[in-house]
Amino acid sequence: MKYVPLVWAALWRRKARTIFTLLSLTAAFLLLGMLQAANSLFSGGSVNLSAPIMIVQARVSFTSPLPMRLLPQLEAIPEVESVSHSQFFGGIYKDVRNFFPQFAVNPERWHRTFLECRMPDAQYQAWLQSRTGAIAGRLLADRFGWKIGDRIPLTSQIWPLKDGSRAWTFDLVGIFDDVSKDSCVRQGNLYVRYDYFDEGRQFGQGGAGIYVLRLHDPNQAEAVARRVDAMFENSPDETKTQTEKDFSLNFLRQLGNLNLILTGITVAVFFSILLVTGNTISQAVRERIPELAVLKTIGFGDGSVLNLVLAESLLMCVIGGLAGMLLSLVVLKVISKLPFGFPPVTAGLHVWLFAAASMVGLGLVVGILPAMRARNLSIIDALAVR
Q1: Which H or E run contains 247?
Q2: 341 vs 332: CA distance, rounded Å
Q3: Which 3 state secondary structure label does DSSP give 177?
Q4: pLDDT grade, residue 45 (50/70/90)?
Q5: Where are the beta strands (DSSP E) in the chain?
Q6: CB-based contact 226:54 (threshold 8 Å)
Q7: Which residues contact 186 (CB under 8 A, 6 or more apart)?
Q8: Are 276 and 368 in contact (CB under 8 A)?
């Protein structure tokens, strides 16, 4: 610890160079924190979705509808507490960039199934009484400045009306929120009434996109999935039943091998930062050759000089790495509040451990060659600056 002031002073010998290097490290570890958190999401390690919720989709694809006749059979399963059905609406609000998930649902079934999301009872009753009524999550309502009573025009890219028009209009009658902090992950969604939607659409009447099951005991999820799929095996309506977590992850994975893509980006970023930081440390050692010779002259051994240079390299990587990781927490927190409709991304303990190992590894890799050069330095040659 007594050498910390010496290492700190050496680090800031060229302030501008150190600041720019730290900014580069901060940017690299900002990307590392976000990319590794995203990798964790795609691997299923950080998805925060309701454990009791199961999704039943058509075995072929979730885009294939399932008939309503499956509803009573699903409700008869003892482990199932409630059943809801949902049909993706896919509308555009004013501009194609205003994407948010929209679903046609039965209000009563939705209310019994998604217990984590609640609105004032008066708003729920208004939804039951208004066929054109819709409810929005708090994040979605705040995003567009919606308030109760607003009319929401949506241009559906999937479901035209019977008259051929694609312009649907809904009345916002409710805004739902968390029962407890961060318990409702659907606050970026809009829900409209299925009966109004089904009556008005040009085709597809009587079909449900997916069924949503709420279980009494989440530990029965695997057994319920096998039972549901066995019920409809070898029928025209074969199903694929999975947890809501797995359903969301499978949807994301359709975008491609995102793990490989994100890992490739991380490797490229760290290769670049390796060159930048290595050049900074090497240049700092070259500039201080006479100073290092003086240290050896007054009694610092070869090992002590080597450790001082390595400590400088490690300190720079740790400062930049911590700054980047802390900044990534802020960015991920902001992103998690945006109503994109995807599961929230968080940097867990394993991400921090990976980042810590990367800081130490990067510090050792970029510092070892300059440190070895300092260790092998000849006092006579160094003082002569040869």
Answers
A1: helix 244-253
A2: 15
A3: strand
A4: very low
A5: 53-58, 66-67, 80-88, 91-92, 102-105, 117-118, 133-137, 151-156, 167-178, 190-193, 207-208, 210-215, 239-243
A6: no
A7: 114, 117, 137, 176
A8: no
* Alpha-carbon gap, residue 371 to 284, rounded angstroms: 11
pTM over 0.70: no
Query: How far is it, in rounded angstroms, from Cα 357 to Cα 318?
Result: 10
What's the token pair of residue 384?
Answer: 């002569």
CA distance 179 to 170: 25
Return left, alpha or beta for 214; rule: phi > 0 is left, psi -120 to 50 is alpha, else beta. Answer: beta
Selection from 4-8, 72-76, 92-96, 317-321 with the highest mean pLDDT: 72-76
CB 102 within 8 A of CB 153: no
Residues 6 or more apart from 205 whose CB is under 8 A from it? Answer: 198, 199
Coil, strand or helix at 191: strand
Cβ count within 10 A of residue 79: 15
Beta bridge pairs of residue 136: 175, 190
Name the one residue in this structure whose structure tokens are 């690299």. Answer: 28
Q: What is the pLDDT of residues 269-307, one digit of tens each?
A: 777 777 778 777 777 777 777 777 777 777 777 778 788
List all residues 6 or more positions away from 195 whose beta carbon is below 8 Å from its beta carbon: 106, 131
Count CB neighbours of 217 within 10 A.
12
How far apart CA 323 and CA 300 sit, in angstroms, is 32
- What the block records as the tokens of 16 is 């501008």
SS3 300: coil
